[in-house]
Amino acid sequence: MGMPSRRTRLAVCAVLAGGLFTALTPAAVATPVQAAPAAAADDPVPGHEGMPDDGFSDEPEGEQDDFAGPDGSTPASGAAQAPSARSTAGALAVVPGRASDFALAAGGDLTGMVDKLYKALPTQGLTALMEQANRDSLWNSACGTTGIYGSDLGNHARVCWQSKDDAISTEWIPQAITGVSDAQEDENWGDSDSDPIAVASYDNENPGRSNYASGRDNCVQSSASDACNEKGIRVSFFNKTTGKYRHVLLAWPYVNSKDHISFDALHAREGKCTSSVTASCAAQNGIHAGGMVWYGNYLYVADTANGMRVFDLRRIMDLNPDNDTSVNDPTPDGLVSDVENKKQVGRQNNVWYAYGYRYVMPQVATLKFTTAKNTGTTAGNQCYSTGRPKASYISLDRTGTDHLVLGEYCNYNNGGTSHGRVGTYPMTALTGAVEGTQATAAADLAYGLPEAGTFGKEALWHKIQGVTRYEGKWYFHRSNGYDNGRLLQATPQTVDGTSQLVGNPKILESSYGPEDLYIEHGRGNGVAPQLWSLSEHAPSKCGVCKRELYSYGMSEVISAFGS
Fold this sequence. Notes:
Structural class: mainly beta
Number of helices: 6
Mean pLDDT: 86
Low-confidence stretches: 1-38, 87-92
Helix content: under 10%
Distance between the termini: 76 Å
């Protein structure tokens, strides 16, 4: 007789798990296990996963999209926008930089729910996860052609994704980058020599599970592909020693409709449509994760419309400890986990799923902006000089007192009153808000971006995708559609009695699709400081487009700018 099917084994495991759970309850003492009722079904509410509204504001679908029009729509052809009629020539204007607009407050306490997940599921540390990295990356010359790079700077390092899927995926779009140099002053993570680099990618297949939009798959139906599910954000940890990397799904913990602890993907809005997408029910929508900072045990992920979501690297759940995907593993709560099913997430019918991912990291805290939004529209990435900022990208400055730097992506072609703003937070304030020793985290500095200069007959200082500060100077990555972006530099100066950022007239050609910025200081490995970034566009977007992580020598960057 052959081995029972996976489905049969799953059913047996579920029954056994249900019997074990029942046997541990007081009622089971007086009732034989054989006569105990089967465990209650853990089904979602019809037409919905059972996840309550998490209270997060939504963001435009075209967030950080150079091609988004004033109303947020994107031309089907992907053609570039017409240059703005606005004149940006002339003297540098004073742009308000109000630190008070950037204030953050700690959100609801998720500790209790995360503790329940920690007891329900096996756990794993980052060091062990790095040792079990399972996807092959390519490094330096093995990445092949260098057509995506500009002519002003030479690469110190290049890293390429696994070619058969991650490098060409239209579902997962890489955005944010951080690493062990942000995490630790000495760049040594435990006893690991992996020197991890972490990249966040967002699920581009919006709006997700409740998608009844015309011409698109209905994600609620069993016939829909697994790509139809809105999976939110995943973080890929690269092991620089072995050249391998591993994905981790970020998750939101909640108590489901059957009063069981569960988790779902990260969403800015939880879709509740059951027949068609309407304004009243909307559709599920993910977040963009345009920036990320790893500091100590915490991973800070930018949530454009809300602030930051925080994760704890000590709280990584492992749904496949035996590394055998063909057999469902038992979990500490008496259930089982399934990593072959890519269409379900959280606890469903007494089985744990994670869209096929082995590792899940639940959100432990939220830092939300407290300032009211400006009343102007932001559908086409418009920005304003006052009111709540957008958390489009973040980075860490370790060259003085540790600070997190946060900034806005804006498309000035579409209107608004600002090219964008940046602000800084002492890391002690953010850590205090995350750990509950203080209720708020105040920014201690803010600037508007420079307003002088043009590029391609439009404003130079907008469409910023990443920022960092190094030894007092500010560096920005400006995107340029499906073409080479630019690396910009600005310095705080006093102009007409007001402190503001003044742009360096020298601009450097960067890669196609340039994104977030991260500085590797080299304190742990003796390598000279490096400025890291990444490109987002898959080859399907343009003839030269390609996804890579890459670094420039920081001394070369400084020299190229003339200071």
